[in-house]
């Protein structure tokens, strides 16, 4: 029996793309770099702020203004992370349903830890008591460290967990943790790509996700 469900945040529970897109371009504009399209930013996100800006800034870390641009992104996003962000359709109802059935839940994200905690508190409150983001001293996904920490804080064993995400990083994270992964197709990666990466369990909406979780959890 599975006892806990661990969720990625961006592209899985919350549609954060517009705010990430705007903060990326605000930082790029500050240093005179060309703007990125919404679709480009969609493909860049999923593995933390450094990786996002590494792809967005011309020549990445080789650019002498890279770290300044990254800091500009972090500052802008810290002020605007709630402007256009919100849960995907059906997410709140799904979480309430899972909570009513006794599942424990946590968020494990490569977003900065302060942003993960702020957004989780605002949108999910007590439904998700544990939220872990990127911080010093713990390896980010796809390393298993943050997932293991979430399981520990929930008081469950790793083998009692299911992981839910939307990207290649999430698939690799679950594999590194040796737990099942459900890949949602409403986020930042499409169904075709996820299947090509070896996704075994996919969900196109929250109703399908609930059914898959029930099958894996029993």
Overall geometry: globular
Q: Give the biggest beta sheet.
A: 6 strands, parallel
Number of helices: 10
Strand line-up across the major sheet: 5-4-1-6-7-8
CATH top-level class of the largest domain: Alpha Beta
Number of domains: 2
Q: Report the sheet-strand fraction.
A: 15-25%
Distance linking N and C termini:
5 Å
For the CA atoms, what is the radius of gyration? 17 Å
How many beta-strand segments? 8
Q: Give the helix/strand class.
A: alpha/beta
Write structural notes for this entry.
- This protein is an alpha/beta fold.
- The chain folds into 2 domains: 4-15 and 86-217, HAD superfamily/HAD-like (Rossmann fold); 17-80, DNA polymerase, domain 1.
- 47% of the residues lie in helices and 16% in strands.
- The chain is built from 10 helices and 8 strands.
- The strands form 2 sheets. Strands 5-4-1-6-7-8 form a 6-stranded parallel beta sheet, with helices on both faces. It has a two-stranded antiparallel sheet with strand order 2-3.
- α6 links the parallel β4 (104-112) and β5 (130-134).
- α1 (17-30) crosses α4 and α3 (49-56) packs across α4.
- It is globular, with a radius of gyration of 17 Å.
- The relative contact order is 0.17.
- The mean pLDDT is 95.
